[in-house]
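Q: I have 500 residues here and want to know how they pack in 3D. Can you give me a structure?
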Amino acid sequence: MGEKIVAGGFDLSDRQRYRRKLQQCLAGLGRLLTEKRFDRPRNLMGLEIELNLAGSDGLPRMMNAEVLDRIASRDFQTELGMFNLEVNIAPHRLAGRVLDQLAEELRTGLGYAHRKAAEVDAGIVMIGILPTLDGKDLVSANLSDVDRYVLLNDQIVAARGEDFTLDIEGVEHLSCTSSSIAPEAACTSVQLHLQVTPGRFAQVWNAAQAVAAVQIAVGANSPFLFGKELWRESRPPLFQQATDTRPPELQAQGVRPRTWFGERWVSSAYELFEENLRYFPALLPICDDEEPLRVLDDGGVPRLQELVLHNGTVYRWNRPVYGLADGVPHLRVENRVLPAGPTVTDVVANAAFYYGLVRSLAEEPRPLWTRMPFETAAANFETACRHGIEAELEWPRPGRGSGLTRVPAVKLVRDELLPLAAAGLDAWNVEPVDRDFYLGVIEGRCRRRVNGASWQVDAFHRALDAGLDRQDALAAVTRRYSVLMHSDEPVHTWPAGPGD
């Protein structure tokens, strides 16, 4: 990168120069797409999981730097909050026994990290939002001591110009304010990457958008925030409000939020990058010395660093990603829908369901997105976030007819989508034993109507009924969740109640 610019030091000329550079990068991407310079995909998938640190009391531990020093592995990195870590799994070819291989790598890595964290009375908890987080935990002083997080916070706060308002009406109502983006750190998720050709990008992205609601319905795991029971998957409204650079007057004018579902189906990856430039001002206008069009003229491949950096500050639930590997460009769809947890088995089952389903839907002769308005997909996403495993979704009628029908998510998954996911995994050449085991976990959740969120809520109310106050009940749920998480039995088989 070019010369480092300190937080708060961006003037108008910096932003104008950066916007010109972004336009050059976008033109460079357009040329790369036209010239078909992209790598042929090798059926590669990638996986990242954001994690929480909590002590034996179930409360968050602000000590990721110390824990990372003890783990001493490049696979683990900081995340936004001092109680966060992230684990990155190297890309795998989506074939054979890849699902079991992923599960074993995750068990080994997370088990090791948990043992090292235990040396300082902390532990790894894989959950969408840690139930015991309190407002005093999510303050700027608890942001990780990393320049990019400090800079990002300063720029979003400056763009906002006033405190952030968190106002989520769920089972209960949360209303509070924050002077920083620290509440965003409460959201810990799983990111699933899939490398695609430019010609197939739109089909895969559209399919991923269409099934985002279904992913949430079966995978919700974030029902609590600041002691309140909110949506079954509370990350999306929290993330949107905690990163919202729009003051109320801009919200009223219809300016798009930086965290959003989108507003239309697309026909190319270029459209999404162009939307980013058109709708979202730069937050981190740091210019690289590269001249992308000159690099292309000379036969090289540009890094497009400004485009990549800007894209990373637009929080789509399915994000386009441009990258280089050994000097060859590639495109990925990054699925950011799912919360972390509850177990390694559940995470891999969610991944199996997603990769299989997207493969089948992207290849359908009559695509799902031609039969369902985009507005319906967006509304389904919110419905699933609110209601989780109990959600009812609007979905195209089966067969050759047209129109939409309302169907319980669990029925839709069991009757229509699990067979499609199985066929998709077959198309990826995933071994049937892996296919059947991990899709069986999704079927088990639907049959028992249990996922991480419903288990947490049930355990919480059982603890209240047993006489615990609200904070003690949330701590008891967190402690029991952590024990069961490390047992790696899928969540739909967990015993009811907090157990202590």
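Q: Anything worth noting?
A: The mean pLDDT is 93. Residues 101 and 428 are 15 Å apart (CA to CA).
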